[in-house]
Amino acid sequence: MTHCNSSNPSSKNTTAGIKQIAVLGMPNTGKSTFFNRFTGANASVGNWPGITVDLMMAKIKIDNQEVQVVDLPGIYDLRGFSEDEAVVRRFFETTPIHLVIIILNATQIDRQISLALQVKHLQLSAVLLLNMADEAPKFGVSIDHDKASEYLGMSVVPISAKYGQGYNQAYKIIQEELAKGNEPFSVGKVEDNFAPEHQIASEMETLLQNAVYTSTEVKKNLTSRLDKILLHPVLGLPIFFGAMYLIFQFIYMLGTPLQGYLGNALTWFKDNALEPILAGFSYQGVWGKFFHDFLINGIYEGIGTVATFLPVIFLFFICMAILEDSGYLSRSAYLMDALMERLGLDGRSFVMSLMGFGCNVPAIMGLRVMRSPSLRLLSMLVIPFSLCSARLNVFIFMTTAIFTPQQGTKVLFSLYLFSFAAAILTAALFQSKYPNKEPFLLELPPYRFPTFKHMIMRAWREVIHFMVWSRQFIIFGVVVIWFCNNFPTNVPPASPQTISGMIGQFTQPILQPLGINPQLAVALIFGFIAKEIVLGGLAVIYSTQNDAGLAKAISQQIDWVQAYSFMLFTLLYVPCISTITVIKIESRSVKFACISVVWSVGLAWITSFIFYQSARALGF
Q1: Within 13 Å, how many C-alpha atoms sit on residue 578's CB side?
Q2: Phi, psi (rounded to 5 degrees) for 155
Q3: Which of 234, 453, 524, 591 has the highest CB neighbour count under 10 A?
Q4: 563 by DSSP, 3-state: which?
Q5: Is the dihedral of CA 351, 237, 406, 618 positive or negative?
């Protein structure tokens, strides 16, 4: 199989000879793992005509035929009422499909086979891939795939998307289905093709009785043994928070040296390559020096400072891949559900908050799986307090600059606890305004350790996404801050007479009671656009030569109380303009987005004020 570049779909896709494949499945079945293997991780996110949300897609070639593969949102039931289920129905109604690839969990076939039966009644050409087939015997599940295929009217193939077992057979069958040359099929109105629920139930019972054997005597496996400890009613939560502490310890202890090596490499490149190249040009007069400083102290230093944190992001997403793919992330939702329910939320809200540690934007978009509008809105107020990777970069830098290595991990973990406390407080205060009565249903997948290749690929994709997503904000931010720092040209850079100096002084009546000086204030203001700008902005403001110089300059100007107050404010105030935009889109309310901004900024100011003034009153 050869791959071609992925692209966003257009209305021409269904008429230009490109065949359409839709990948459908329930959450936590390995659907995305199969999609990445099938498409060669060559996917992009784009808007599908007639659908209001983005879908993951990729173009590949099968037998020299161009094929577009679309990864549909994970759903439990085509008849459901969540937004993701509505998106899937709308997709089938508006898009002629050549083939549907259904991914289900073989170990939970008795609860998942209904989705395949629903697709069967839509009369779509389909192939059923039973993922995690290698784990089914451990759970006492045995499946006669030929009989299942006969009952469903579609090919049924056991696979392991994680390890690749059965993948070649699945690919061959997909090839054969596409080679039949069937015309693409449009469902029309999906609801008109639904079979009665009693008929689906009857067909499920018949299929399970004749094609699936479940042993009643299953030995205790690793999952059941681990769950006795990790889901313990008393020990479960302490173990979870202990695991999060170890993750921060790992990221800090390993990420900081790697960050230093990359910073030294960037400094070496500047001194031995960039400066000599620029030295070949004539820099005469004020404007020559101005141009040189713009390139070196503005663009290169600003972007370079942010780039040194790529190892930290890489390590962070390796840890997130382990949490998510091992099945422990789902169990954290189970552990937190009792507490979340008292706050008007449920375990899914907690999982999405954890996913917000990577980026708040996809975490908020993931709330579409919730049927209750009130639950979605309340969760939207909570998720922005998650300590995203961009803010994590700022915190690791500040802790490295101000605190000892022994203190650094504890400082980072305390910020994580503050984000958790802010989420609880927000939910407690707003739950009466956004009441939730939706029941919480959760599948707990078996424990499994992700493959080394999957962890690396996941982390690498996230790093690339971070750079592609943030570079526009970083470049814009550091350039604007540099100009503000150097205009007017007849005064010292970054002095109170410059634009940035005047902005910083203007904010002092509000931010000085928090211990935030004018330089930090300017970085905070531009950090509203994106938190990636904060570090680049500080590098430009302090006009340093490398990370060590920036850390030294900041440590000489502020103490640990000011630094911690600054980090608290950065943690709690508006994450970024992209998050606010997504909140506005998902809530369909400008008023709600404004409430989110006002609440987060207000909470940030009050928290930092209490901390700073209390610390000073105690003599720190």
Answers
A1: 17
A2: -65, 140
A3: 524
A4: helix
A5: positive
For all residues of the chain together, what is the average pLDDT? 81
Distance CA(306)–CA(593), nearest Å, equals 28
CA proximity to 447, closest of 222, 125, 228:
222
Average pLDDT of the residues in 323-345? 80
**Residue 301, Cβ neighbours under 10 Å: how many?**
27
Element (H, E) at 213: strand 212-214
Which helix (H) or strand (E) is 504 found in, with range? Answer: helix 499-511
DSSP secondary structure string, 88-101? Answer: HHHHHHHS-BSEEE
Decide: residue 228, CB within 10 A, 0-12 exposed, 13-18 middle, 19+ buried.
Answer: exposed
The residues, ordered by sequence, that sit 6+ positions from 505 with a Cβ below 8 Å of its Cβ are 496, 518
Top-confidence range, 42-46, 356-360, 404-408 = 404-408
Cα gap 593→586, rounded to integer Å? 10
- 318 pLDDT more than 90: no
What is each CA distance from 245 to 54, 252, 416, 512, 563, in whole angstroms?
Answer: 34, 11, 9, 32, 21
Locate 295 and state its tokens.
Answer: 């390139």
CA distance 67 to 499: 54
Q: Which residue has the tokens 């993931």?
A: 366
- Apex CA 405: angle with CA 535 and CA 571, to 5°? 40
3 alpha carbon, distance to own chain's centre: 26
User: Quick one: DSSP state of residue 412?
Assistant: H
* Dist CA 30 CA 131 (whole Å): 7
Give residue-wise pLDDT tens across range 261-272: 888 888 888 888
Local structure of residue 488 (DSSP, 8 states): S
CB 93 within 8 A of CB 104: no
Question: pLDDT tens, 5-19?
Answer: 333 343 334 445 789
